[in-house]
């Protein structure tokens, strides 16, 4: 870390408390002048830091700038050493993750976070709309073990959806619902979308990487695009974004590495927005309708169509009837 980052790390550890310049200099073993320069640089970046003679410096409780030290302050011990890369603006964190993977060595669980995406992507080639300053957009790069089974790829998205839902529950004390396979709804509005992508050699049946991209709406923008205004939802919270990001990463780690598939699927089903409902979908180029009845151990959706069971391993479903604005 550079001087600015180590100073910010100390301020984050003592958020809301004054620390004298001399104490900072002693702790970090750098000069008072270096501390002063770092504080001014942080203020220029947008951090709210109060400076008072004889009291020192204090990172204001309301300062809500995303930062690596700020995120790491709330991470569980297992994630303290992960690489986090921040962007003010980017085309897509998933696209950038691919560029990084092709250009050099990337550690497992490297996380890319951006305040804004100009070309966010969703499933089935759709775009994912973002609005500057109103959301969190991040991608996690995973390096799975050699025995990763392609046919269980949907479970990556299932585990991701569960992690987001659990983080929202803990932070907001709300109960989200999951629309198979990758959307999170809160009070009938979509607050999160997930895109999982696999880089694999299908001949050797080896997986080099998995990228999980997640976009979460935190606030409502001043004006919504017409095509999404009826479905767009937001968490509407003043919780610090660093804390939200850390909570999301913590829950992802636990859901991906610690929780058994059985418990993940139980949670997913318990919070499902589609099970028991009539759904529309497309299979092999045909538009169909049936009743969503279950999710199997691979994360596939089982649909009953006129007494026959069909298995959906990809694609998207829409729900018949009015489910918006409902809990």
From TrEMBL:
GO terms for molecular function: ATP binding; biotin--[biotin carboxyl-carrier protein] ligase activity; DNA binding; transferase activity. Its EC number is 6.3.4.15. Residues 21-40 bind DNA. It catalyses: biotin + L-lysyl-[protein] + ATP = N(6)-biotinyl-L-lysyl-[protein] + AMP + diphosphate + H(+). InterPro entries: aa-tRNA-synth_II/BPL/LPL (IPR045864), Bifunct_BirA (IPR030855), Biotin_CoA_COase_ligase (IPR004408), BPL_C (IPR003142), BPL_LPL_catalytic (IPR004143), HTH_11 (IPR013196), Transcriptional_repressor_C (IPR008988), WH-like_DNA-bd_sf (IPR036388). Acts both as a biotin--[acetyl-CoA-carboxylase] ligase and a repressor. It is an enzyme of class 6 (ligase). Belongs to the biotin--protein ligase family. Biotin binds at residues 92-94, 117, 121-123, 190. PROSITE patterns: BPL_LPL_CATALYTIC. This is Bifunctional ligase/repressor BirA. HAMAP family: Bifunct_BirA. Keywords: ATP-binding, Biotin, DNA-binding, Ligase, Nucleotide-binding, Repressor, Transcription, Transcription regulation. It comes from the Bacteria. Residues 79-260 form the BPL/LPL catalytic domain. One of its GO terms (cellular component) is cytoplasm. The lineage of its organism: Bacteria, Bacillati, Bacillota, Tissierellia, Tissierellales. GO terms for biological process: protein lipoylation; regulation of DNA-templated transcription.
């Amino acid at each position: 870390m550079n001087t600015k980052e180590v100073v910010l790390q100390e301020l984050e550890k003592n958020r809301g408390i004054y620390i004298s310049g001399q104490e900072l200099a002693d702790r970090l073993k750098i000069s008072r002048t270096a501390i002063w320069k770092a504080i001014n640089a942080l203020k220029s970046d947008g951090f709210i830091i109060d400076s008072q003679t004889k009291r020192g410096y204090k990172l204001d409780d309301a300062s809500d700038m995303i930062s690596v030290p700020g995120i790491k302050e709330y991470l569980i011990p297992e994630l303290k050493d992960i690489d986090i890369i921040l962007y003010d603006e980017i085309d897509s964190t998933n696209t950038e993750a691919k560029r990084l993977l092709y250009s050099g060595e990337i550690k497992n669980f490297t996380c890319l976070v951006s305040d804004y995406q100009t070309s966010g992507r969703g499933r089935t080639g759709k775009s994912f709309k973002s609005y500057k300053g109103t959301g969190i957009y991040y991608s996690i790069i995973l390096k799975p073990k050699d025995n990763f089974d392609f046919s269980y790829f949907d479970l990556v998205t299932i585990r991701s959806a569960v992690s987001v839902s659990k983080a929202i529950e803990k932070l907001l004390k709300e109960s989200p619902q999951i629309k198979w396979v990758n959307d999170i709804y809160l009070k009938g509005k979509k607050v999160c979308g997930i895109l999982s992508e696999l880089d694999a050699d299908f001949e050797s049946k080896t997986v080099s990487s998995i990228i999980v991209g997640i976009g979460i709406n935190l606030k409502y923008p001043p004006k919504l695009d017409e095509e999404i205004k009826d479905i767009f939802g937001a968490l509407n919270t003043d919780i610090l974004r660093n804390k939200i990001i850390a909570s999301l990463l913590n829950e992802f780690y636990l859901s991906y590495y610690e929780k058994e598939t059985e418990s993940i699927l139980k949670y997913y089903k318990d919070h499902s927005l589609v099970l028991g409902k009539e759904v529309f979908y497309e299979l092999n180029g045909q538009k169909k309708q049936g009743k969503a009845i279950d999710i199997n151990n691979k994360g596939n959706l089982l649909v009953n169509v006129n007494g026959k069971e069909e298995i959906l391993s990809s694609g998207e479903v829409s729900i018949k009837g009015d489910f918006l604005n409902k809990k």
